[in-house]
Known about the structure:
Number of domains: 2
Largest sheet: 6 strands, mixed
CATH architecture of the largest domain: 3-Layer(aba) Sandwich
Structural class: alpha/beta
CATH class of the largest domain: Alpha Beta
Strand content: 15-25%
Distance between the termini: 31 Å
CATH topology of the largest domain: Rossmann fold
Bound molecules: adenosine-5'-triphosphate
Radius of gyration: 18 Å
Number of helices: 9
Amino acid sequence: MPEPLLELRGLRKRFGGLTVTDDVSLTVLPGEIHAVIGPNGAGKTTLIHQISGTLRPDEGEVVFAGQRVTDWSFPRRARAGLARSFQITCIVPGFTALENVALAVQARSGSSFRFFRPAHLEARLNEAARAALEGVGLGHRAGVVAGSMSHGEKRQLELAVALAMEPRLLLLDEPLAGAGPEETERLVALLRSLRQRYGILLVEHDMGAVFALADRVSVLVYGRVVITGTVEEIRSHPEVRSAYLGEDEMA
Ligand SMILES: Nc1ncnc2c1ncn2[C@@H]1O[C@H](COP(=O)(O)OP(=O)(O)OP(=O)(O)O)[C@@H](O)[C@H]1O
């Protein structure tokens, strides 16, 4: 078994009297897609926040690439290769796709935002941004203003922004939300193509996509992991079938 890229050890988070993350332990291996599923309010997004560093757990540890990062800030984790794909709201609608990704490349390279840059730097920035766009199948849309793109394309762009940060692990919170059937198909193919290069922790409600993509699945209920297993194990688990997913989604 390879060394996990991400390891959560006994994470616990309370909001007032409510325990939203309850002793969660799981791993993501290099090249693995580990999906976290569960009913609304189960604590999936709160878990992602604790991994990315926007929320501190009350107890437990987050270990990334062998380092204990529990006390690290969000930017420090991002620089170390833990990239969270943000909701579309992080995209600047008036900028082109290329400009949006170039901003992320610049953030990654640590230089401050400057409107007037030497031409050779600008060329390097654009080259890296273009490569990230190619990686998500948006190379031909580089010059298009983000605000005029389709929902699915914005999702692809959001992924390109995350990839521009040169991550080792991608945290994806409902990447298929709001996508139509064709867009979903395209995005699932894209995520599948990324899996070998990155570890992926995927939170997603679309069970068809989860079962098509995931190497392992953890089911979260009231903040607790009730089972972690392969897609087949999850599909055939009687409690999961009846209580958490709905029979129709398992067909
Ligand atoms: N900052 C907060 N303060 C208090 N309660 C919170 C806070 N954030 C989340 N919660 C509560 O924690 C629980 C888990 O929320 P969370 O958004 O993590 O669930 P989820 O599994 O992502 O849900 P969904 O599938 O609907 O997105 C919910 O009951 C929510 O109301």
